[in-house]
Design a protein that fits this description.
single chain; mainly alpha; Rossmann fold; 2 domains; 15 helices; about 5% strand; disordered N terminus; glycoprotein; signal
Length: about 450
């Protein structure tokens, strides 16, 4: 797994290419690729379950403004100012926004054939009993990954009534499983567990996610997107909790190195688990969504992407170095909102803004094999009307694409590749090795 200081690696281009290739080449176009989406996870994916589970007289802070202000203009139970990645995926595939399971259970409307979301804010991977035995408490929810799977099985009996109809239905469905792990680790830290104890949970969490994937595949799922965790060491909540005067604890982006290493460790073990499952189920398509590296450019160069208020200060909070206070969360008065969430990466200390999620999702949905400049079609390419020849179709932001015109790559892709060649292990011998550098004049500058 790449570290936060080496996100500009060629493997990042490859991971986006692989994810997008799998998602779009199974159909002639994005719209119609999938007939439904099923979501599982925590607050990065919940579209309204927790706010409907909690008692009306004690709602979570996500039930209050300014949550939802950017797109929905009212709180919906999403942990952001607007849409989440699951929303952008649904829009990309021409599907309605995925409704929460609790809403389905109460209403069972016809459009739930298009998908159901079982994710719950605060959901851990491992069962609550595991943590209670260790004195670790989750004050948000007891809905673990196993509970969400049970909800899915209950839902399935209502959506299809035979083995053949279920298989057909699930084969045309997209499953978003996660991210998971964040609440397993954060709640442990908030219960004063040591870093060594928390690290010991990582293999168990990865195995539990793998077990859930196997179970879904056994039920009939064939296309699963499994996200890794975002860099916790860059979130305002944890920067506040673990603030230290020791500057060596921080990287060049002012993120906590040790906490990002924990996140990287989780993502690495998760990817190993996915590789094993791919061997067990070669008929299934299991896609690792690299949330960590998808968002890392926003922390590395927030100004470049329009986040002029920075990446590590929360938009909605209650003041302080990172505009975060665990005792007065966003939505609980007297919070301090921000005038323009689109200028921030961090929304409330724990979650990102809609603008950040939008850019992250585009890194997966715009992908690597669709040309930025072309004339429409599956790959936005037509040999008879090349880029530059009218009527070509340009793209709004080439930095979100790998392919420029069907034959060549974008500057952003070449930049990633060149930095990997100059700084990384992709030349043999390495360009920066002593034997090669001797052939380069001392006064030569790569900035020329």
């Amino acid at each position: 797994m790449a570290s936060s200081s080496s996100w500009l690696s060629l493997s990042l281009v490859n991971s986006y290419a692989y994810a997008f290739l799998i998602l779009v080449t199974s159909s002639k176009n994005a719209t119609g690729c999938y007939t439904s989406i099923f979501g599982f996870g925590d607050s990065l994916t919940d579209t309204g379950n927790l706010v409907k589970i909690d008692p009306p007289d004690d709602p979570p802070h996500e039930a209050f403004p300014p949550y939802g202000e950017t797109f929905f203009h009212v709180p919906t139970g999403r942990s952001s100012d607007g849409r989440l990645i699951i929303d952008f995926i649904a829009e990309y595939y021409g599907l309605p926004l995925v409704p929460p399971y609790v809403e389905w259970k109460n209403e069972k409307r016809a459009n739930f054939w298009k998908g159901v979301n079982f994710a719950v804010i605060g959901a851990p991977t491992l069962d609550i009993a595991f943590y209670e035995e260790r004195g670790i408490h989750n004050g948000i929810t007891n809905v673990s990954l196993k509970v969400q799977l049970a909800w899915f099985k209950e839902t399935l009996t209502s959506l299809c009534n035979s083995s053949s109809s279920c298989n057909e239905f699930l084969q045309s469905s997209l499953f978003l499983l996660g991210p998971f792990g964040g609440n397993d680790y954060s709640r442990s830290f908030y219960s004063n567990a040591s870093i060594d104890e928390v690290q010991s949970f990582v293999p168990l969490v990865a195995k539990a996610i793998g077990s859930a994937i196997n179970e879904l595949i056994d039920l009939g799922a064939v296309t699963l997107v499994v996200p890794g965790m975002i860099p916790f060491g860059c979130l305002a909540a944890y920067l506040t909790k673990f603030e230290t005067s020791d500057k060596t604890e921080y990287d060049s982006m002012d993120c906590l190195i040790w906490l990002n290493k924990l996140t990287e460790h989780h993502n690495e073990l998760l990817q190993r688990e996915l590789n094993e499952i791919r061997e067990l189920h070669p008929h299934a398509t299991i896609i690792y969504a690299d949330y960590y590296n998808a968002v890392m450019p926003l922390y590395h160069s927030p100004q470049k992407y329009g986040f002029t208020r920075g990446a590590i200060v929360a938009c909605c909070g209650t003041g302080g170095l990172y505009n975060f206070n665990e005792d007065v969360l966003c939505g609980n008065r007297p919070f301090l909102g921000c005038d323009n969430p689109s200028l921030y990466v961090d929304w409330d200390g724990y979650h990102l803004t809609e603008a950040a999620y939008s850019l992250m999702s585009k890194r997966f949905t715009r992908g690597a094999i669709v040309a930025c400049c072309g004339t429409g079609g599956l790959y936005n390419f037509n040999e008879d009307v090349l880029c530059g020849n009218r009527p070509f179709l340009g793209c709004d932001n080439p930095s979100l694409y790998v392919d420029w015109d069907g034959y060549h790559l974008t500057e952003a892709a070449y930049s990633l590749m060149s930095k990997s060649l100059l700084d990384g292990p992709y030349t043999i011998p390495q360009i920066n090795s002593p034997c090669v550098s001797l052939a380069v004049p001392a006064d030569y500058s790569f900035d020329r």
